[in-house]
Design goal:
503 residues, alpha/beta, six-stranded mixed sheet, 24 strands, binds 1,4-dihydronicotinamide adenine dinucleotide, binds beta-alanine
Length: 503
């Protein structure tokens, strides 16, 4: 029998914890059927942390059977009030274990503990509170009068068994965006974390059990995307799948649904979100927001404002100040312990992502010969972690690969525009449509931008702010469907129409 738990020590916070390493099915941790494991690496040091069990097709089937039985026998008969009680219990446990969960995020993903990881937990707490109260608010159908003797009504009912696949940039937060909404709607769930950040969700599974959720309602299946993820996508007894990650894999999840049982699909995929700065903007505030919007979480945000367009009359001033702020507030040098309050930018998630981002930087600098500014030396010789300093490319043409592709690191391109029409043309010149930001003191211009931009989210005089009450999702190749807010529950409900004949 493999080890299904290990002790982890986080000396910086004096935390020691019992970390589960198994697949979580029917409220128990168990080994994978073929003994396959995945090693998880600390991106701050490049050293392994531990290994956990990796699910295969047989394990996926076992979890689906557990989720199906829990749905048919227990969960579909559990009142919304009782579901709300379980979610409230979970909220209390998350609050109690906030530091431990945040510390696991920092250990496994490199997120600075005091800023990013604690901020993720604050968001998780807010949204769990929201969903605990939402269970009976968004499942209300309507009555439709037809003739004197006929009417119809609609019921909003859960799908049944839902699969969820989440990425590594916000490991627990992305899981909770999906999980709490699906549970509030009355579904049972099988959730797969990313290969490189499974620890926090496995630990979270212990809270699910403690909160009283019946066995099989929540199942956590760590595993490889190409194995466990693929098996979830093609399974014939999963009613809905929700995915967050790359646009490429999002497409294959949709394809898997099409090739199997046409399960309902929600996708949250990539972005190349523009920030537009007009000459009448409060420049200092705009720069502070934009710097945070690209450098926070080391730029590993699907909504990162990775394309910045600045009106030509203030362009030079903007670029000068932007570099100063990047250097002053976001530099990495010498601050290589994400548990230390001074660390503002952690490492990127893996050596593969580090190499990928480095390639983009070298392409911009050497092949495309763009103007480049970095806040400190790169590659840095002082750490084995995957640290990348804030990197700013200026005067970048629309044809540049750096301007067109999602880099997912602390790398931003800046260009200029002349007038409103010019700005809109540039902002919309992308296959993506996740988010956007506009900076101006002109109310009319701000709302014209909100009208004209083809993106699921628009921020006016701010950027990258998320609220549990507000729907989130993408236009174009950034996704299908919405999460968060009422849609975070609605997304997991389907409509049944009932026709009544009184004649
Ligand atoms: N929109 C977002 O929040 C994210 C976007 N990305 C983008 O993707 C790029 C590559 O990162 P990756 O880790 O490779 O992302 P990915 O899309 O491969 O990984 C996301 C999740 O999908 C799973 N997965 C992988 N292949 C699968 C398959 N065939 N079927 C079902 N699930 C599968 C993974 O195990 C993980 O849980 C990043 O550089 C970034 O541009 C990555 C993570 C999050
Ligand atoms: N903050 C959650 C969505 C994202 O930016 O990846």
């Amino acid at each position: 029998m493999p080890n299904l738990y290990t002790n982890l020590e986080i000396p910086q916070l004096k935390i020691s914890l019992k970390q589960p390493l198994g697949l979580f099915i029917n409220n128990e941790f168990c080994p994978s059927s073929d003994g396959e494991t995945i090693e998880t690496v600390n991106p701050t040091t490049g050293e392994p942390i531990t290994s956990f069990q990796a699910a295969n097709e047989t394990d996926v089937d076992k979890a689906v059977k557990a989720a199906r039985a829990a749905f048919e026998n227990v969960w579909s008969k559990t009142s919304s009030e009782q579901r709300g009680i379980y979610l409230s219990n979970l909220l209390k446990l998350i609050e109690e274990e906030e530091n431990t969960l945040a510390a696991l995020e920092t250990l496994d993903s490199g997120k600075p503990f005091h800023s990013n990881a604690k901020q993720d937990l604050a968001q998780i707490i807010e949204l769990t509170r929201y969903y605990a109260g939402a269970v009976d608010k968004f499942n209300i159908g309507e009555t439709i009068p037809l003739t004197f003797e006929k009417f119809a009504y609609t019921l909003k009912v859960p799908f049944g068994v839902v699969a969820q696949i989440v990425p590594w940039n916000y490991p627990l937060a992305m899981a909770c965006w999906k999980l709490q909404g699906a549970l509030a709607a009355g579904n049972t769930v099988i959730i797969k974390p990313a290969e490189n950040t499974s620890l926090s969700l496995l630990y979270f599974a212990t809270l699910i059990k403690k909160a009283g959720f019946p066995p099989g309602v929540v199942n956590v299946l760590p595993g490889h995307g190409s194995v466990a993820g693929q098996a979830l996508g093609t399974h014939m007894d999963i009613d809905k799948i929700s995915f967050t990650g790359s646009t490429k894999v999002g497409g294959s999840v949709m394809e898997a649904s099409g090739q199997s049982n046409l399960k309902d699909v929600t996708l949250e995929c990539g972005g190349k979100s523009p920030a537009i700065v007009f000459e009448d903007a409060d420049l200092d505030k705009a720069i502070d927001w934009i710097a945070a919007g690209i450098f926070y979480n080391s730029g590993q945000n699907c909504t990162a404002n990775s394309r910045v367009y600045v009106q030509s009359s203030i362009y030079d001033k903007f670029v000068k100040k932007f570099k100063e702020i990047a250097k002053k507030d976001w530099d990495v040098s010498g601050k290589f312990d994400p548990f230390d309050e001074k660390c503002i930018i952690g490492p990127v998630i893996s050596s593969a992502q580090y190499d990928r981002i480095k390639e983009f930087i070298e392409l911009g600098e050497k092949e495309e010969k763009l103007n480049m500014f970095q806040t400190s030396e790169f590659p840095t010789k002082k750490t084995k972690g995957y640290f990348i300093p804030p990197t700013i490319f200026t005067d970048v043409p629309e044809t540049s690969k750096l301007l067109r592709e999602e880099i997912f690191g602390p790398v931003v391109v800046v260009s200029k525009f002349e007038n409103y029409d010019d700005a809109m043309k540039l902002a919309n010149d992308t296959y993506y449509g996740l988010a956007s930001a506009v900076f101006t003191r002109d109310v009319k211009k701000a709302h014209m931008f909100a009208r004209d931009i083809k993106a699921g989210t628009v921020w006016i005089n701010q950027t990258n702010q998320e609220e549990a009450k507000v729907p989130f999702g993408g236009f174009k190749m950034s996704g299908i469907g919405r999460e968060s807010g009422d849609t975070g529950v609605d997304n997991y409900l389907q409509i049944k129409s009932v026709h009544v004949d009184l004649s």
